[in-house]
């Protein structure tokens, strides 16, 4: 009996750690009230941190992204020239800013057209805010440029 109670308490703590900070009894994360997220829209775009690259999220499948497995297609261009950039070295790391202790499955990046890359799996297995960080290395830009871009997505 004592054992069962301890187990229940641990389970509740576990759920609390990934649930809404608003303290509701719902198991849906309150995406609408979290100002850190960008609402998903196909074609949404972000600038890399020093403004060299623009990254457009052409599509998420499913879209909006769901809890679990997603496939993303992004397109990268050079802001200064508007050129689509092929042959970039793109690596992708999804992390939850509220849960520094875990990541997720490795994301495989596959070139799939002019300036276009397929990201799979984008495995967002918990509700809450995920920062999808893309580290982009462009040896053809300037004398070689590395920059990062982040798409913040909320999973309900
Ligand atoms: Cu988490």
Model description:
The protein has 156 residues and is mainly β. It has one helix at 2-18, and strands at residues 44-47, 53-61, 68-78, 89-95, 108-111, 116-124, 128-138, 145-155. A hairpin with a 4-residue loop joins strand 5 and strand 6. The model is unreliable at 4-26 (pLDDT under 50). The protein binds copper (II) ion. Copper (II) ion binds next to loops.
Q: Concise description?
A:
The protein has 156 residues and is mainly beta.
Task: Please outline the helices and strands.
Elements: H1 2-18, E1 44-47, E2 53-61, E3 68-78, E4 89-95, E5 108-111, E6 116-124, E7 128-138, E8 145-155
Antiparallel strand pairs: 1-2, 2-3, 3-6, 4-7, 5-6, 7-8
The structure holds copper (II) ion.
Copper (II) ion (CU) binds near residues 96 and 126.
Supply database-style keywords:
156 residues; mainly beta; Immunoglobulin-like; five-stranded antiparallel sheet; 1 helix; 11% helix; globular; binds copper (II) ion
What ranges have pLDDT less than 50 throughout 5 or more consecutive residues?
Answer: 4-26
* Tally of helical runs: 1
Biggest sheet architecture: 5 strands, antiparallel
The total tally of domains equals 1
Succession of helices and strands: HEEEEEEEE
Q: Which shape, going by the Cα principal axes?
A: globular
In CATH, the homologous superfamily goes by the name Macroglobulin (MG2) domain
| Multimer state | single chain
CATH structural architecture: Sandwich
Structural class: mainly beta
Bound molecules: copper (II) ion
What gap, in angstroms, lies between the N and C termini? 34 Å
CATH class: Mainly Beta
Rg calc: 18 Å
Strand order, largest beta sheet: 1-2-3-6-5
């Amino acid at each position: 009996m004592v054992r069962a109670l301890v187990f229940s308490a641990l389970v509740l703590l576990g759920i609390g750690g990934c649930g809404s900070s608003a303290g509701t009894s719902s198991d849906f994360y309150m995406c609408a009230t979290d100002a850190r997220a960008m609402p998903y829209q196909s074609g949404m775009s972000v600038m890399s941190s020093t403004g060299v690259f623009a990254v457009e999220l052409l599509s998420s499948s499913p879209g909006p992204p769901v809890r679990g497995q997603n496939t993303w297609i992004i397109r990268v261009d050079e802001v200064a020239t508007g050129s689509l950039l092929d042959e970039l070295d793109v690596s992708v790391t999804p992390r939850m800013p509220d849960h520094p202790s875990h990541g997720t499955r490795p994301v495989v990046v596959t070139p799939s057209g002019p300036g276009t890359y397929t990201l799979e799996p984008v495995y967002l297995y918990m509700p809450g805010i995920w920062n999808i960080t893309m580290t982009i290395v462009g040896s053809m830009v300037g004398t070689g440029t590395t920059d990062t871009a982040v798409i913040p997505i909320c999973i309900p």
